[in-house]
Amino acid sequence: MWDFDDWPDVAPTEILPGMFVGGTADEDYIGSPAAEGHYAFNHPYDVVLTLFADAQPVPWGVTELRYGFPDDEVQDHWAINCLAVAHFGFTAWHAGSPVLVRCQQGVNRSGFVAALMLLFNGYSAEGAIALLRERRGPAMLNNESLELWLVQEAASRVQPRVHGA
To answer: Is residue 165 over pLDDT 50?
Structure first.
């Protein structure tokens, strides 16, 4: 069991320049009133990958790709969809757009997709997991099924787009 002191806050953490991982604040759930400035075009991210179905949509002027999936045992059909989401995010990030990958807490689902983005960038699964834990905290990817899929399956399904990372 994880000590809650190891869990990061939901606020985004920069993993690499322009690549952020975060969660969803309690006041940012669907059904909550939109935050002040929600309709302003001054959001810090160009692209947001939302992996938590109950998160508020992002403000205007931000590209959002939403794919909710459970923080549970990996199912191949949603892992394949996560690869597509990660590739979308990687492409935007690699082109220079700041990208936020977010889920509920910013630990497992967002860690899984961010790790896949790092694999597209040339990282090994182990290197990607280590970087996420170093930058965001030791609780990252504490869902052993997600970590195992990254280590055992991801390399055969991801063709890195950048080498030498």
So the answer is: no
Q: What percent of the chain has pLDDT over 90?
A: 75
Measured distance CA(69)–CA(42) in Å, rounded: 29
Contact 133, 141 (CB under 8 A): yes
Structure tokens given for 165: 């990372």
Domain assignment present for 127: yes
- CATH number of residue 74's parent domain: 3.90.190.10
109-120 and 76-94 are packed helices; what angle lies between their axes, rounded to 10 degrees?
A: 60
User: What is the Cα–Cα distance from 49 to 114, expressed in whole angstroms?
Assistant: 10
Total structural domains within the chain? 1
Decide: helix, strand or coil at residue 29.
Answer: strand
Look up the pTM and report it.
Answer: 0.92
Q: Would you call 49 helix, strand, or coil by DSSP?
A: strand
- How far the first Cα of the chain sits from its last, in Å, is 32
Pairing status of strand 99-102 against strand 63-66: unpaired
- Residue 163 structure tokens: 């080498």
